[in-house]
């Protein structure tokens, strides 16, 4: 299983059209951004390639949509109605559903967490989270700009390369989506948007009017902060976005902050602030997801970074040289490797020394371990896994 929510089985009709079919099981070779609508309308996804922390797999985790990876030769067999046995990571073409396995409980340490930042796909995730009484510690929600684009049916590269007017229109539409999210916030909550981090291979799937350069290794290519610095019209979009927030939200616009993705060092951070035209009093967070950024964590804090977000999914793959999108090296991609834990602790300590909040992203299976073995009381978690944690915390402990 690439993504396995708190379910034991899913039954449905296979959808091989790549178009949204509500309630179906999406069957594709590889998950990509152009499948956004088809993914979010599905009850499960079966594919042949990918890793459990890939970009679109993260969308599935946020929505609680299970993803099963099968051998390529098995994919053509999946037609009509099938049952996916999640606890056994298999697909049943016919026959009875096997007896479920009791889910593992791994959220006890969340009682010790002071702050939770929830990774969302749209405003419905905020609404559903705020109805759960066990989640009072949720004080931030986090949205990727690329997910906001997909939800609004926007192609950012097309817009940003079509001139100032289209770039500004793009920023305004993204801001309108953020305004809808702010309306769902409780008084003590804020919203963080991670600035656009669209890899070339993903961009090519949703870009129509502009040629996207083919890169031999997109993960290590021109994306994140390095792309934002190269994109001439992105500052126009960002200014229009912030202006729309101020106009429609007034003082409430301060509840929306931003974070820089895929950045290495202080030089990039300062250059990007200048590129975006930010004043000294404008808050900007930093995503720590490369080894270089871990070593620059103190520099970011001292230079005025408002928050640090440790993106463990990318950080782990770079520390261990194991592609997070490749299931063939899943055994090497270890979320609790000593080198990984040392890096996380170093970044957390940098924030503690400078009084800058540091949020560590944790898969549901790692939440307890991180709380117990790292000097942090601030976590980031996907919506569906956090809801699973809430159900666990609400379940009475059997008397002995």
From TrEMBL:
Domain PEP-utilising enzyme mobile: start-end pairs: 22-87
Cofactor(s) the record lists: Mg(2+)
Domain PEP-utilising enzyme C-terminal: from-to ranges: 175-360
Record key words, sorted: Kinase, Magnesium, Metal-binding, Transferase
Top-rank lineage group of the source organism: Bacteria
Family: Belongs to the PEP-utilizing enzyme family.
Protein known as: PEP-binding protein
